[in-house]
Design brief:
single chain; five-stranded mixed beta sheet; alpha+beta; Helix Hairpins
């Protein structure tokens, strides 16, 4: 009796039984009274003092008895139908819940490829749709987690393998130590250290434990400084960086180093994926977003663009549209993940719009906090 099916059936059936019993009782009492009044009106008009029972003969009593029996049979039929309907109603609620429970047990065991059929548009159907979306999200996150581990291993293994191979060659006397060789090993060690630092910052930012040193900052100055820093990289590809910076923007309280890192990562990506002799346009403006004032910094390039299937995941850890992970075609794939987290811990948002073959536009929104 612990099944919710039987509990719902019993509850609904009890309500039906009580209702039928009350109706039969009232119908019987009312039928007897009205029938006696009818007989008195027909046979005893004008004769005062005659008892009602005195006019009840065998035929009248047989008629009332048949009516009572009919009401009982009708009540019994209603109860049977009510029992069946109550059970079907309970099953219509519990069967989808049982399927949801079975699917949830499969997810608990690590099988995230679970979907339940949605046949109704009521609360149970809505619950089924929410469950299916949750299962899809869990499956996607599980795949991304596996890919994350594989990518971390790949990114760490490459510089370590280079360092290990060169050192073993030097120890065995196969490779002659030189300044160029040592410089190359130093570069790999620096790259490895930078990757580990980025991973640490990213993990701290995700749990909102990254320390920020906020102070009133001129965003236009940060943009200009970052563009100058990357000028050698843009000049190597003969890419022109055009800045249209709005005048008299208010200073906002940010961690200048972290926001500079945001701009650096986005501009590096824009240069990397833009064709030679291309153009990268950077604009700043004061705008309204969700009813609040924000500084909008836009970075537009005319590169390869982002495919629609890749666009929802470009801010994920180590995600790259180029599955070959050839370093010539891009970095480690962690830069945009850092951008997203750093912008969000400042209370802002980062968005992207892109068309394959026409380029991409990254938009950073930072809430305005006027300096005192």
């Amino acid at each position: 009796m612990n099944s919710i099916t039987y509990r719902i059936t019993g509850l609904v059936f009890s309500a039906i039984v009580l209702t039928v019993c009350i109706l039969i009782y009232l119908a019987n009492v009312q039928m007897t009274g009205l029938f006696q009044e009818y007989l008195m009106g027909q046979h005893m008009m004008g004769r005062a003092g005659m008892s009602r029972l005195a006019i009840m003969g065998q035929q009248e009593e047989a008629f009332l008895a048949s009516v009572h029996h009919s009401l009982l049979w009708v009540g019994l039929a209603i109860l049977i139908v009510g029992l069946v309907v109550s059970y079907l109603l309970a099953r219509s609620i519990t069967v989808p819940l049982r399927k949801l429970s079975q699917a949830a047990e499969q997810i608990e065991q690590g099988n995230f490829e679970q979907q339940v059929s949605v046949a109704t548009k009521d609360e149970i159907g809505h619950l089924g749709k929410v469950f299916n979306r949750m299962a899809e999200t869990l499956a996607t996150n599980n795949n991304l987690r596996r890919q994350l581990f594989a990518n971390i291993a790949h990114e760490l293994r490459t510089p370590l393998a280079i360092i290990q191979g060169n050192l073993e060659g030097m120890v065995d006397g196969v490779i002659e130590p030189s300044k160029d060789q040592l410089r190359s090993l130093h570069e790999e060690a620096v790259r490895l250290n930078r990757l580990i630092k980025d991973l640490r910052d990213l993990s701290l930012a995700e749990v909102r434990q990254l320390n920020l040193e906020k102070e009133p900052t001129d965003i236009n100055q940060l943009v200009t400084r970052t563009v100058l820093m990357l000028k050698p990289m843009s000049d190597a590809k003969q890419i022109s960086i055009e800045c249209a910076l709005a005048d008299q923007l208010p200073e906002i309280a940010v961690d200048a180093d972290r926001i500079s890192q945001v701009f650096y990562n986005i501009i590096v990506n824009a240069i990397r994926y833009s064709p030679n002799e291309g153009v990268v346009r950077i604009t700043t403006a004061l705008t309204e977003f969700n009813g609040k004032q924000n500084l909008q910094i836009s970075f537009a390039d005319a590169g390869l663009g982002i495919s629609p299937e890749d666009e929802p995941y470009i801010f994920e850890h180590f995600y790259r549209g180029d599955k070959s992970r050839d370093r010539k075609s891009g970095g480690s794939g962690i830069g945009l993940a850092i951008v997203k987290q750093l912008v969000e811990i400042h209370g802002g948002q980062v968005m992207v719009t892109s068309k394959p073959g026409e380029g991409s536009t990254f938009i950073v929104l930072l809430p305005v906090v006027l300096s005192e």
